[in-house]
Amino acid sequence: MNNPFPQCWRCSNKPHKFDPGCGHGITLKLLGEVIDELGIANKTVLGWDIGCSLLAWDLFDVDAVQTHHGRTVPVMSGFKKSRPDSIAIAYTGDGGGYAIGLHHLLNSAQRDENISVILINNANYGMTGGQEAPTTLPGQKTSTTPNGADELFMRGPELVQVANKNAFSARGTVRQPLVLKKMLRELIESQQNGHFGFLEILSGCPTNWKTDAKGTMEFLKRMEEYFPTSRPHPPTPLPTC
Ligand SMILES: Cc1ncc(C[n+]2csc(CCOP(=O)(O)OP(=O)(O)O)c2C)c(N)n1
Ligand code: SF4
Questions:
Q1: Of the residues 24, 127, 135, which should be mutated to test ligand 1's pocket, given the most ligand atoms within 8 Å of the CB?
Q2: Does the beta carbon of 94 sit less than 6 angstroms from any atom of ligand 1?
Q3: Which residues constitute the domain of residue 211?
Q4: Residue at 232 is within a domain
Q5: Closest Cα partner for 68 from 60, 78, 81?
Q6: What's the pLDDT at 70?
Q7: Would you say the CB of residue 56 lies under 6 angstroms from ligand 1?
Q8: Res 7: pLDDT
Q9: What pLDDT does residue 14 have?
Q10: CA–CA distance from 31 to each of 5, 158, 187, 193 (Å)?
Q11: Low-confidence ranges of the chain (pLDDT < 50)
């Protein structure tokens, strides 16, 4: 039987540790396919933030570094400076990237650090029990906002765009994996072209959202009202007669 997994995954460690229905698995499979297609596995270094991101620490057969919470972006910036021939990818949650680590993200974008950042927006702090994050939707119930969150939330790719017009900055969703895969490829190509790259991904967290498969998809769709994706899903071609 053909191996359905990316070549750069470490298949002996499967099944992976994410909860059923979690969006991380979709993103990481697409990332693995892009690394395979670009032929960069032997020079890629993955930086994992603390949070559910760390559950991927042994998912790939690629060099990796586990960083402190919120510090993945500067760690990978430093790594890239010492090994300019590498492909440095920081992988973080929205708590790590937008709360404790926002200054790192914006400073790195402004300095046009030559790295790629993937940020998983699941509208809460997943690993620690679903607390409010900077991306929690207005009115959303979380473990720290049982009566519904306030109206404040932040949009990261829009901020990065202001910080650096030369950076690749986009938002995708696991609801549209084919479009997301293209974005992941462009993110890494932007590093190959010498620029900072940032991709926020709307991603399901059924455990803390307390949703079934249908409810997870509905919540992901609702997120797009607050976090517009950079590219709409391509229209389905009309049948030819
Ligand atoms: C400096 C520091 N502060 C707080 C924590 C506790 N902590 C661990 S994971 C986490 C939240 C992670 O949420 P997020 O970054 O959104 O990632 P997710 O788990 O949702 O993927 C927190 C607050 C920590 N490990 N280190
Ligand atoms: S808590 Fe949420 S983000 Fe973390 S593994 Fe479970 S479903 Fe995924």
A1: 127
A2: yes
A3: 11-226
A4: no
A5: 78
A6: 98
A7: no
A8: 96
A9: 76
A10: 11, 23, 10, 18
A11: 234-235
Gyration radius (Cα) of the chain, Å: 17
How many distinct structural domains can be found in the chain? 1
In a domain, 4, yes or no: no
- Residue 73: predicted pLDDT: 98
Q: How many angstroms is it from 110 CA to the middle of ligand 1?
A: 25
- Any idea what the CATH number is for the domain that residue 163 is in? 3.40.50.970
Q: Is the CB of 128 under 6 A from ligand 1?
A: yes
| DSSP H or E stretch at residue 64 | strand 63-66
Ligand 1 atom closest to Cα of residue 127: 19
Distance of CA 161 to the CA centre of its chain: 17
pTM above 0.85, yes or no: yes
Pocket test for ligand 2, best of 16, 17, 19, 27 (most atoms within 8 A of CB): 19
237 in a structural domain: no
Nearest-angstrom CA–CA distance, 33 and 226: 29
Within a domain: 114:
yes
pLDDT digits (tens, 9 = 90+) for 148-198: 999 999 999 999 999 999 999 999 999 999 999 999 999 999 999 999 999
Task: Give the per-residue pLDDT at 16.
Answer: 84
